[in-house]
Request: fold
Amino acid sequence: MRVGLYPGTFDPITLGHIDIIRRASALVDKLVIGVAINRDKGPLFNLEERVEMIEAECAKLSAETGTEIIAHPFENLLIDCARDVGAQIIVRGLRAVADFEYEFQMVGMNRALDSSIETVFLMAEARHQAIASKLVKEIARLDGDVSKFVTPLVKDRLLGRLGKAG
Reply:
């Protein structure tokens, strides 16, 4: 069974993330969405809320694609998480050239730690390339419309968290 790991903070999950998840599902039998517990980032949503949103959105994708998709919180090294879930590949989404610099360094370090785990890069579709969770949160905070960037479920949760009317 081919297992992939798609890590991130998903604070919140966006249409860009969902695009990568959908396309990564075609590459693996099981896709683990690694939900990073990153206390330094100070996420808007707690871990349980992020996992819940991912599970809700991925249940639909799993049914459509036939790929098992699960959320898996982790706080250890990415390469250790990959080993823990039995992943042979790490899936990373790229939006722009700026992402590549950081990802290039990460791949080098991960390969040094475990050369048996490959990293696969998927470019976000053009319509999703500008989407970043950080920007979506900022748009919502400033009363902008985020419906082009997140699902209705995530939009409602985001606006609710920020005390905004939907």
Observations:
- The two ends are 42 Å apart (CA to CA).
- Helices lie at 15-24, 47-65, 78-85, 97-113, 133-141, 152-161.
